[in-house]
Structures are given as structure tokens and as C-alpha cells.
Amino acid sequence: MYSQISENKNKTWMLLILMGSFTLLLCMVLGAASGLDVYAAAALGGTFTIIYALISYYLSDKIALMASGAKAITKSEAPELYNIVENLCITNGQPTPAIYLMNDDSPNAFATGRDPEHASIAFTTGLLRILNKQELEGVAAHELSHVKNYDIRVMTIVVVLVGAVMLLSDILLRSSFAGNKKEAGTILLVIGLVLAILSPLLAEIIKLAVSRQREYLADASGALLTRYPEGLASALQKISAHGQPLKKANHATAHLFISSPFGAKEGGKVSWFSKLFATHPPVEDRIARLTSMGK
């Protein structure tokens, strides 16, 4: 547990440095392509990168909650849910996070924030409707494990940083085609074009790198917290069987959720290529691991 927390803290800084450096490079190329000298382009890129890094660290959770349409609720509005979360937090020795609700029939949940003292967890109305108490405890324990393990810091910062890289790369790609070759130079345009094409792929790879294995760890930690892995396994089975995508599903926040917000794929088997770029491990594998824990 402690090694996982330390690893996630280190991964956060590595992610900020890597994505910040790449964002700085994109800004410099974009500035140079616009006719700025190298020092002005570097200053522009550095300012943008610092501001975006600060936004990522301090405000990314608010952005994720807003993008998902989550609304804060009080204990009087959902007393049973509050009691479940508070009891699990007492057992796990962690602060009770703010609780949010998403008005959506699709069953799902996610956690966000920069640390356990500044954390939030959100549940959909569809999830509360189809799960019994033990299953809801399993989902809540899974999300609280993300909080205690500091997964949420890495997961949430990725939302903003990946969005920044994709935005800059799109601007750079458009300016590369629309730019004046005599002013920017053919080599600069080629470099900008290559960066613009590769940056969304790099952003996606980084997002996936911090996504899948962490779900297995949160499943196991959550099962240990409730001492009833069958509860989470049953919840995952119901969520997977439902298959309905979230109303506000988007690729920037997909990796935050306990299950893919785009719903189950119809038509049988999923291709190896789709699995390669999936934000979550196969639900069958997760259920099998949880079931084996209960034996």
C-alpha cells in the first residue's frame, strides 16, 4: 500500500514534467510558426505550461466533476449512501470525501481530487437504483481505494494535461497547413506537423499507462476493505450487463470511471486493437480475480 502511494506521488511529478515539457515544445513550435523569435516563443510556452500545470494540480478535479455533470449532495439527500461512505472511511482511516451525484441512468462512479483531504466521489442515479447495499459498498470501497492510494491525483491531472496537449496539437496542425512557408520555413512546418500528429497518440498512451493496472489494484484494495469481494464482483457484473453509455461520456474523463462510460460493446468479442486502446481491463478478468479472492 505505502509503496503504491509513493509510486503514485512520484508518477504525478514525472507526468507533470513530461507533459509540461511536451506542451512547452508545442508552444515554442507554434510561436515560432507564427513569426515569433525563439525567446518570445519560449516565454510564451513557459507561461502557458506553468499556468496549465497549476490548473491541473489545483482545479482538475473541479473540471472533471463539471464535465461529468456531477452535483454535490448533502447527507439528508442520500443518507444511506453517506452512511456507507462514512463507515468505510472510518474503517480505512481516511477523511470522508465530498459526495456527488450524476443524474444519469447509466450505472457508474468515479473518484477525483489531488489527495485524500481534497477528494470527491461521484455516483450516478442509475448505479444507486440497481445495486443493493453490499454491491454499493463494494463500488464505494473501490473508489475510496483510489483516493487513499493517490490514484486520483494522477488520474485527474491526466484529464487536463492530455486535453492541453490535444488542443495545442490541433492548433499546430491547422497552422502548419495554413501557415506561410516563406515566413515559418519548410523545416519548421514539417516539425510542427509531425508533433501535431504524434502528440494525441502520446497523450493517449500516457493516459492508458496510468489507467488499467490501477483498476485491478483498486478492486483488490476495495475487496480487502469490505471483506466481501463478491459484492464488488456482483456490482461489476450488473454495471457491465446494463451496457448504457453515460449522457456526458467523453474520452478525456473516461479513465476516471469504475467502468467504461461508453457502455458495453455489442456484437460479441472485442478486437485485440480495441482492447489495446481500452481505458479499463476486461470486466470478466476483474470479476474472476475478485471471485478467486473470496474462495
Give a verbal description of the structure.
It is built from 12 helices and 4 strands; from the N terminus they run H-H-E-H-E-E-E-H-H-H-H-H-H-H-H-H. Helix content is 67%, strand content 6%. The chain is of the alpha+beta class. Helix 1 runs parallel beside helix 6 (151-178). The radius of gyration is 21 Å and the shape is elongated.
Annotation, overall tally of beta strands: 4
Largest sheet: 4 strands, mixed
The secondary-structure element order is HHEHEEEHHHHHHHHH
Percent range for β-strand residues = 5-15%
Q: Spans with pLDDT under 50 lasting ≥5 residues? A: none
What is the 3D shape? elongated
N→C terminal distance: 23 Å
Structural class, from helix and strand content? alpha+beta
Q: State the assembly state of the protein chains.
A: single chain
| Percentage of residues in helical conformation | 55-70%
Our Rg estimate from Cα atoms comes to 21 Å
* Mean of all residue-level pLDDT scores: 80
The number of helical elements comes to 12
In which order are the strands of the major sheet placed? 1-2-4-3
